[in-house]
Design goal:
With about 500 residues, the chain is mainly α. Among the domains are: about 1-135; about 140-260. The protein is about 55% helix and about 0% strand. The chain has 22 helices and no strands. It is elongated and about 110 Å long. The chain starts with a helix and ends with a helix.
């Protein structure tokens, strides 16, 4: 005896065949649509498959009404032929199907979500080839149907990152990507306005997952993969890189103008310099966003450095207190943050110019040396060669290691660690006694690296790329894998019960 699932499959197949074979059976489409809301997942999946085949066939046959869709009451007027009345009626059933599929994108079963998404995108592709709406501005692209998909991809209360990853393959089509960007911008504006600009963490995470997955073309000739084939590509704005960049820019600016949760804020800053700024028509529009982020402090400021560097270097951004703020970022936490490697690469880049004043370079070198006293070994193997490279680039700062009045003769270090202004820190009056101190460090690699200041520095700079990637775990693995032959030991014979030479019990507990 057949189970309920097999019976429903058979019933769906019979309905499909009946509707496609004769218009007199058109009412049986309701049986299919009703099963889209069934309680059992397998029945729902079967209904989605049947809808895909049914309306896919009707779209290809041209049996759905084309043009502005009148209401079902209006379609009963005598001005419409029997043919048009059928097509209008079936077009309304098609609309109901698409609305049901959009709702199923929020189903608890990911399989149903995925199947609903793929079916809707199949309809988008079919409508792009045989448009149901004639609209000169959008060149007949099925924007309303794609809007349903976008809304299903970025719900307000449910994480949809997995569904977004499934959608990425459709973003390879240039027209789909273009209209998705415009619809996301509209959706964010509408949703955030209703929320009165209060953060919506789940929604904003969904939006970020979608927009960060968009890969932009770099030139006009790259824009050639369309769902809809248009006869006059030169006049079609979707084929122009400038229009894509404008849509991309509006989408990101609309997203970034609202308060972001901390984790999203950091993720945006991580990709901003490579994936966002290069594809904007006017990158300087992000100046306010980056300067605010740079002034926040902590890891946020470190991450904002990349974007600011792009604006300073390529877009003539003037930031008068840039080095003062950069100097303030040198705190003990920089050796422990996730983005340490990126920070030191940028710091090395910002301090590479030979035109920087000696007091500024000396202040950075001295602050790094002071922080080195409490830094972990893997951080010290970055700091020591980093400081030496600064001295090589700026010979006037070598006085810090060749000062005649050495720290032994100084009553106190004149350097003011708490001074926020590098020019007032008196770093050039000090010396790098901290590096000398590190020659007694417990880790032999650090102690060996610190001995470099005992000799005259070579002109060739140390390569930092290897040590920047070094981690504590790698150092540990490297140390335990070292092969040693001679191990120096020092042994002093125990005297007495408590191990002291003058112990009263020494005469009784002396070990032979």
């Amino acid at each position: 005896m057949a189970g309920p699932e097999e019976a429903s499959e058979a019933a769906l197949g019979a309905c499909l065949e009946a509707v496609l074979s004769s218009r007199s059976n058109a009412n049986r489409v309701f049986e299919i649509l009703e099963l889209l809301q069934a309680g059992e997942n397998e029945i729902v999946l079967g209904a989605i498959r049947t809808c895909s085949r049914l309306f896919g066939a009707l779209l290809e046959r041209g049996e759905l009404f084309v043009g502005k869709l009148p209401s079902e009451e209006e379609s009963q007027q005598e001005s419409y032929s029997a043919e048009d009345k059928y097509k209008i009626w079936m077009r309304h059933r098609y609309s109901s199907c698409c609305n049901c599929l959009a709702q199923l994108m929020g189903h608890k079963s990911f399989q149903i979500k995925e199947f609903a998404l793929c079916t809707l995108m199949k309809f988008v592709e079919l409508e792009a080839k045989r448009p149901l709406i004639k609209n000169e501005w959008s060149f007949n692209f099925p924007r309303d149907l794609l809007k349903l998909v976008v809304e299903g991809l970025i719900p307000i209360e449910e994480d949809s990152s997995l569904l977004v990853s499934r959608f990425q393959e459709y973003l390879d089509h240039d027209d789909v990507r273009f209209f998705v960007m415009k619809m996301v911008a509209e959706n964010v504006g509408s949703v955030m306005q209703k929320a009165k600009k209060a953060p919506l963490p789940v929604y904003q995470r969904n939006v970020f997952a979608l927009i960060s997955s968009i890969s932009m073309p770099s030139k006009d000739s790259d824009i050639k993969n369309f769902l809809m084939k248009h006869t006059n590509q030169e006049e079609w704005k979707v084929s122009k890189l400038k229009e894509h960049r404008l849509a991309f820019e509006r989408m990101w600016l609309g997203f970034l103008k609202h308060k972001l949760p901390g984790n999203i804020y950091k993720k945006v800053l991580v990709i901003l310099h490579e994936s966002i700024l290069p594809h904007m028509n006017e990158p300087i529009l992000l100046i306010d966003f980056l300067t605010v982020a740079y002034n926040i402090g902590g890891a946020i400021s470190l991450l904002a450095l990349n974007g600011l560097f792009v604006l300073i270097l390529h877009h003539n951004l003037e930031y008068p207190d840039f080095y003062k703020k950069l100097y303030s970022l040198l705190d003990p936490y920089v050796f422990y943050v996730k983005y340490r490697t990126r920070f030191f690469r940028l710091l090395d880049l910002f301090l590479s110019s030979s035109y920087l004043p000696a007091y500024l370079v000396a202040a950075f070198a001295k602050r790094l040396a002071r922080l080195a006293l409490t830094a972990p070994p893997d951080g010290l193997l970055i700091v020591i060669p980093f400081i030496c490279n600064l001295l090589r680039r700026h010979p006037s700062c070598k006085v810090l290691i060749h000062r005649l009045d050495s720290p032994a003769e100084m009553l106190e270090d004149p350097y003011v660690m708490d001074e926020e202004e590098p020019s007032e820190s008196r770093a050039l009056e000090s010396s790098l006694w901290e590096i000398k101190t590190l020659q007694n460090h417990y880790h032999p690699d650090v102690a060996k690296a610190a001995t470099i200041i005992n000799t005259s520095l070579s002109e060739l700079e140390d390569e930092l790329s290897e040590v920047l990637e070094l981690t504590t775990f790698e150092m540990f693995d490297r140390d335990i894998n070292k092969k040693t032959t001679d191990v120096p030991l020092e042994f002093q014979q125990v005297q007495g019960l408590f191990g002291k030479e003058q112990d009263i019990f020494a005469q009784y507990f002396t070990l032979e």
